[in-house]
């Protein structure tokens, strides 16, 4: 068994509008871990995208790794973990899902569990409660997923997403629990039919790589964005400015507060300059789809 590992997990965006709790996209923004065995546990954050104070036993990475080791009847050895993250907390870029996938992979490596990809999809989605961000962090690319009552995940996975994405990250957090609290408990049947049709068209457009059409359906969600939009800084302004500057479409990234636009590659540089000038209070990042998902390298 190796004594040192590098684990890289992509962040993700979920929903892309109407693909509620089922569509995910791995992004080229990463959580990276350097893991080595030692006598006592130590977790070191190399940036501000992690808790500043914590007990090891309460840290999400440790909690997940210990849970997986216990589930497979193994003793989790003590590790030194250095964590570097490009994923701000509670912003809708899959930071918790990436940490969960990283914890599963950490246990997989140090306990020699030999987990399959399907195992990782099932475990991460069960812990998250839904498969959108988790599957995208495991596989990269575009994922369209469902999870049955037994926690088994079925995923369609597509790579080669030839479009670019711009994320608008405000300097405020939005907990998923708060974002879910504003959603209705029930929908009228006719309303639900329209909402489902939009989700179906979004998925089909993405699979067909018709990104202009996908952009349209990103903007007609009925499941969550009409209710969450009031929680999001400059929601309407960013939508309008992005469309005027050539974006195919804009939607919440997960539960928000980050927004994400899908744009033609040809306009990327000018688009980012324009949006940064109009929204200086947001951290605006040009990114693309990750193509590999979780990766492990051995030192």
Automatic annotation (TrEMBL):
<dbReference type="InterPro" id="IPR036554">
    <property type="entry name" value="GHMP_kinase_C_sf"/>
</dbReference>
<dbReference type="InterPro" id="IPR020568">
    <property type="entry name" value="Ribosomal_Su5_D2-typ_SF"/>
</dbReference>
<dbReference type="Pfam" id="PF00288">
    <property type="entry name" value="GHMP_kinases_N"/>
</dbReference>
<comment type="function">
    <text>Catalyzes the ATP-dependent phosphorylation of L-homoserine to L-homoserine phosphate.</text>
</comment>
<comment type="similarity">
    <text>Belongs to the GHMP kinase family. Homoserine kinase subfamily.</text>
</comment>
<feature type="domain" description="GHMP kinase N-terminal">
    <location>
        <begin position="60"/>
        <end position="141"/>
    </location>
</feature>
<keyword id="KW-0963">Cytoplasm</keyword>
<dbReference type="Pfam" id="PF08544">
    <property type="entry name" value="GHMP_kinases_C"/>
</dbReference>
<dbReference type="InterPro" id="IPR006204">
    <property type="entry name" value="GHMP_kinase_N_dom"/>
</dbReference>
<dbReference type="InterPro" id="IPR006203">
    <property type="entry name" value="GHMP_knse_ATP-bd_CS"/>
</dbReference>
<protein>
    <recommendedName>
        <fullName>Homoserine kinase</fullName>
        <ecNumber>2.7.1.39</ecNumber>
    </recommendedName>
</protein>
<dbReference type="InterPro" id="IPR014721">
    <property type="entry name" value="Ribsml_uS5_D2-typ_fold_subgr"/>
</dbReference>
<dbReference type="InterPro" id="IPR000870">
    <property type="entry name" value="Homoserine_kinase"/>
</dbReference>
<comment type="pathway">
    <text>Amino-acid biosynthesis; L-threonine biosynthesis; L-threonine from L-aspartate: step 4/5.</text>
</comment>
<dbReference type="GO" id="GO:0016301">
    <property type="term" value="F:kinase activity"/>
</dbReference>
<keyword id="KW-0418">Kinase</keyword>
<keyword id="KW-0791">Threonine biosynthesis</keyword>
<keyword id="KW-0067">ATP-binding</keyword>
<feature type="binding site">
    <location>
        <begin position="88"/>
        <end position="98"/>
    </location>
    <ligand>
        <name>ATP</name>
    </ligand>
</feature>
<keyword id="KW-0547">Nucleotide-binding</keyword>
<feature type="domain" description="GHMP kinase C-terminal">
    <location>
        <begin position="203"/>
        <end position="276"/>
    </location>
</feature>
<keyword id="KW-0028">Amino-acid biosynthesis</keyword>
<keyword id="KW-0808">Transferase</keyword>
<dbReference type="InterPro" id="IPR013750">
    <property type="entry name" value="GHMP_kinase_C_dom"/>
</dbReference>
